[in-house]
UniProtKB/TrEMBL annotation:
SUPFAM superfamilies: MFS general substrate transporter. The keyword rRNA-binding does not apply. PANTHER family: FOSMIDOMYCIN RESISTANCE PROTEIN. Keywords: Membrane, Transmembrane, Transmembrane helix. CDD domains: MFS_FsR (cd17478). Pfam families: MFS_1 (PF07690). This is MFS transporter. It comes from Methylobacterium adhaesivum. Signal peptide: none annotated. The lineage of its organism: Bacteria, Pseudomonadati, Pseudomonadota, Alphaproteobacteria, Hyphomicrobiales. Residues 39-419 form the Major facilitator superfamily (MFS) profile domain. The keyword rRNA processing does not apply. The chain crosses the membrane at residues 71-89, 126-144, 165-186, 192-215, 240-260, 280-298, 310-328, 334-354, 366-386, 392-414.
Amino acid sequence: MLDTNGQAVADEGLGADAGATVAVAPPAAVTGATPAFVVLAGLSLSHLLNDLIQSLLPAIYPLLKAQFRLAFGQIGLITFVFQLTASVLQPIVGLYTDRKPLPFSLAFGMGSSLLGLLLLSVAWDYGLLLLAAGLVGFGSAVFHPEATRVARLASGGRYGLAQSVFQVGGNAGTALGPLLAAFVVVPHGQGSVAWFSLVALAGIGVLALVGRWYAGRLRAKLRPASRAVARAAPLSRRRIGVTIAILLTLIFSKYFYLASFSSYYTFYLIHRFGVSVPQSQIYLFVFLGAVAAGTILGGPIGDRIGRKPVIWGSILGVLPFTLALPHADLTWTVVLTVPIGMILASAMPAILVYAQELLPGRIGLVGGLFFGFAFGMGGLGAAILGEVADHAGITAVYALCAYLPLIGLSAAFLPRLAR
């Protein structure tokens, strides 16, 4: 039968187990659908603007640390508040919008980020910094679940490609944030953060247009060919639950490791190699640029060869590079961060589409759950690694995190989804 989102679901069929293989929808070449690239471009651009705003917060940590005399543990708590806010609310937003889509909530979420930016630019104590971080986190919680749904709706059946295009915008914004912080915020101080409210206003405009397109699709009650159709009996509820848990474990390893870069890589470079703050931001930009490149590759490759090989290779394949990183000089540190970023980031589009194929009709919930969990694990990682840095030194953070990709071995237990 069809659910309220036009996706095929089985009547209590989750109680039946199809073994290790579940058939999913044919790609766009079979369905004849064409991706709505203008909408995908708008989503990618708005994701860029949204995550650019978010990335400003960790990018100016050295400035905030000096100005407010913060310990590493307090720095980690700022990230924890931001990412916990996003992680707790995202699944709730996704579950609600699965039943009642809210096209213009996208622009509303960007408005919350705008308020957080303005507060960050004038905050005079640590409590206001935490509140500003929470507002930006709330904006992310509202933005990601509905944006994930619109990306799939506009995919034309090329789900991996659509998720890559959507997510690469976010990664590009995350990469640009430190660069802009180095040349705008660091030289001119905390108050210059207010200039980035123009970025938020532009995002609100783009998302209002995307919301109009989405609302039009809802009014027309179209059943686009981009919707997944189950062709075989799905896995049992227990098997699906175990599989989702494995995927979330992989997200944990990915985002816990990424937290070491987003929050502490600049401190690591400054402490170990004596580089300046602007130089450290440029090196962080190199890493985040590699993350963006890996994101755009992971989805289309998954469309061609399947999600599981991409997940398996992207999580575990990064291990040799992470093990080498703590022992490298400055040049090789920068070089190693390129394959680390590319390989690690290629997993996220494949993981998200894989989960959507496991739970057809729950696109918002899947988007909210996985993006929310990613934010939460990043926040938890930042908080824990901040304490590690305070007690054992910043270099110990990367020696410890080097082994996280070993968790990728759990990908061996994922069932194969046959298209």
